[in-house]
Design a protein that fits this description.
164 residues; mainly alpha; 7 helices
């Protein structure tokens, strides 16, 4: 089961699912068929079969929740430090322009906290903590409007073929 923000099920949902597995364990002990248990608990037969295998190998204890799949690699305190570093801007960290990219944030995390993240992992970390992709509110200071206008008049028409 995938979750949009990478957060996984809530603790309440985990407890609910664990309760279903433990109810199934009671019914396993009674000798009920997997299809009957699945229908009674409103889950798939495959899930019940998987739970039965786990129950056969480890008893009801094997059906208990294992907790969250993984713990965040950056603690809340470290993420607050990362936000402070991001607020200083890329130039303070040695980049020439004022753009934060995922690759740059990945490098900053590596330098500051000695942790390696993938670019996708950095994106998930930021989204999970309420950050989103942003478009600059104003144009870059380095932008040369005359050069852009010349490019639009001279280069773009050559690059764009007629549709006929």
């Amino acid at each position: 089961m995938r979750y949009p923000q990478g957060g996984g099920p809530t603790p309440e949902r985990q407890q609910f699912r664990e309760g279903l597995r433990l109810k199934a364990a009671e019914r396993f002990a009674g000798g009920e068929a997997s299809s009957v248990i699945a229908k009674g608990l409103r889950v798939s037969v495959r899930s019940v079969q998987r739970w039965r295998r786990m129950w056969d190998e480890g008893g009801p204890r094997a059906l208990r929740s294992q907790g969250p799949a993984s713990l965040p690699r950056l603690s809340e305190k470290q993420f607050a430090q990362l936000e402070a570093e991001l607020a200083k801007g890329p130039a303070a960290h040695g980049w020439e322009d004022q753009r934060w990219t995922l690759a740059r944030i990945k490098t900053l995390i590596g330098r500051r906290f000695h942790l390696t993240y993938t670019v996708q992992g950095v994106r998930k970390l930021l989204v999970r903590n309420g950050w989103s992709c942003q478009v600059p509110a104003r144009r870059a200071m380095e932008r040369d409007d005359a050069a852009v206008a010349g490019w639009v008049k001279e280069v773009w028409p050559c690059a764009e073929d007629s549709r006929r």
